[in-house]
Design brief:
By secondary structure, the chain is mainly β. 0% of the residues lie in helices and 50% in strands. It has no helices and eleven strands. Strand 4 and strand 5 form a beta hairpin.
Length: 117
């Protein structure tokens, strides 16, 4: 069974940075894609970034150039580096693993990110 645990969320001022981590259990981490999603109050869940097992990345326009997704397969851990944060980035952030193009077969419990103006 795959378990994902996010960490690194918190309160940050606009313009600041945070680094989210996603620790995965199980043996499939290195073989499948990883993603980061977020959901703000009253809004639909949004796909932010995906990194394939080989390291290819893609980003939503809303975070392109500000967020960077990465993974360390030796540590079964993924990351989301977030820079130039804006108040509209406030949301619960989730990491995922999956086989499909949206990499969302498995979900973590989420970590809150709050950006103050």
């Amino acid at each position: 069974q795959v378990q994902l645990v996010e960490s690194g969320g918190g309160l940050v001022q606009a313009g600041g940075s945070l680094r989210l981590s996603c620790a995965a259990s199980g043996s499939i981490f290195s073989r499948i894609a990883m993603g980061w999603y977020r959901q703000a109050p009253g809004k639909e869940r949004e796909l932010l970034a995906i990194i394939t097992s080989r390291g290819s990345t893609s980003y939503a326009d809303s975070v392109k150039g500000r967020f960077t997704i990465s993974r360390d397969n030796a540590k079964n851990t993924g990351y989301l580096e977030m820079n130039s944060l804006k108040p509209e980035d406030t949301a619960v952030y989730y990491c995922t693993l999956g086989i499909g193009v949206r990499a969302n077969d498995y979900w973590g419990q989420g970590t809150q990110v709050t950006v103050s103006s």
